[in-house]
Amino acid sequence: MELIDTHCHLDVAEFDADRQAVIHRSRAAGLVGIVIPAIHAKGWDALLGLCASQDDLYPALGLHPVYLDQHQPSDLPALERAIADRGPVAVGEIGLDYSQPELDRARQQALLEAQLAIARAADLPVLLHVRKAHDAMLAILRRARVRGGIAHAYNGSLQQAHAYLDLGFRLGFGGMLTFDRSSRLRRLAARLPGEAIVLETDAPDMTVAAHRGGRNSPEYLPDVLQSLAEVRQDAPEALAALTSANAREVLGIVSLLPSSTEQ
Questions:
Q1: pLDDT tens per residue, range 142-176
Q2: Which end of the chain, N or C, is less surrounded by CB atoms within 10 Å?
């Protein structure tokens, strides 16, 4: 089976001690691609360097809404330049987080809209962080008219899911799907059309049930696949092929080197 982790923060400090070992174990687990989204401008260079060193790591560049106070006005033109110079697969992680009242919503929206305009100009998909803000996000996306992307760690309703699909988006499912208590999310994953779903870990956060309390890792993506197979009553092999094809299509990844799994 070939799997693609569409959202993994492999560049962060939690992986500094054993990053290469994690990559090797992930390949052994069947991963042929890992998408690494940025969260702030100061991390772009290290992220891009990491992805440049490995054939199967794919960068996304963006400014995360939770780190609003760390972003500078100069970061937006810097993002445009970095996209032109370095060719990431997506703009992200960007979005709206209304779960934290201290985060100014107007500033979040302005930052999001600016980055969506950059993505549209570059004809790139976007990786969205959305918490308690799906209706607001969908309203902005209808105006922005980007080419689509992924709503990461999707936790909205079935109706909202179909609205994202109509706008060219896929929906990311990760570790929460592996918990039996996530009954609403598991029902949603069972009811969505297959072409809607991509897999992710969001490592080092949001780990799978088997590693509760520990660091999440892209090597645990098969656990997410297995849970998806259980709720959809489908073969893991078929879902691996489907979700990987979905990821390739929405992110424009036209080829993944077979040799990358052997390195």
A1: 999 999 999 999 999 999 999 999 999 999 999 99
A2: C
